[in-house]
């Protein structure tokens, strides 16, 4: 079963939030009680759920995720996002000093104004560029889990987080926050 079909099936019982961000930020999405967390990775050119997932996103799992240095293919992410349509309830894109702009361009236009948000750490100088792409929601990263929980409650389905790492890290460029 392909990823889009898996997500569509998950939506029948869960509020599916897709997060495209830096794995270093995963701790910002930890809640109490913990939420279901599914990592999506690219293997052999195809995005799929990573083996062994979902997990509950606890503090310990968040620390583990920070060192999951998935291979990142921006072109692969963009191709996959263009196919999402109604496969997810909400899309969250980490700005990461403007590195989220190409990812934001790949989200279907129909999802941008109402079913997507751009998240950031402390400021968003690129907000105008995102607005020109059709985005209307902007939140600090630490506010994101509460926002998604509110949306899931309104939809009457429990929240499930799906994550695609959008920044390539390795031993040479990783720093532990």
Question: Any key phrases for this structure?
Answer:
single chain; alpha/beta; Rossmann fold; eight-stranded mixed sheet; 7 helices; 8 strands; about 25% strand; globular
Write a structural description:
The chain has 177 residues and is of the alpha/beta class. The protein has a single domain (3-165), classed as Rossmann fold (3-Layer(aba) Sandwich), CATH 3.40.50. Helix content is 30%, strand content 23%. The protein has seven helices and eight strands, in the order H-E-E-E-E-H-H-E-H-H-E-H-E-H-E.
> Overall pLDDT, averaged?
89
Q: What is the number of helices?
A: 7
CATH architecture verdict: 3-Layer(aba) Sandwich
The backbone outline, from C-alpha atoms, is globular
Q: How many domains make up the 3D coordinates? A: 1
* Assembly state of the chains shown: single chain
Termini separation comes to 37 Å
What's the CATH C level? Alpha Beta
Please state roughly what percent of the residues sit in beta strands, choosing from under 5%, 5-15%, 15-25%, 25-35%, 35-45% or over 45%: 15-25%
Strands, helices and their partners?
Blueprint: H1 3-11, E1 15-21, E2 36-43, E3 46-49, E4 55-56, H2 59-66, H3 74-81, E5 90-94, H4 101-106, H5 109-112, E6 116-120, H6 127-132, E7 138-140, H7 144-155, E8 159-165
Parallel strand pairs: 1-5, 1-8, 2-8, 5-6, 6-7
Antiparallel strand pairs: 2-3, 2-4
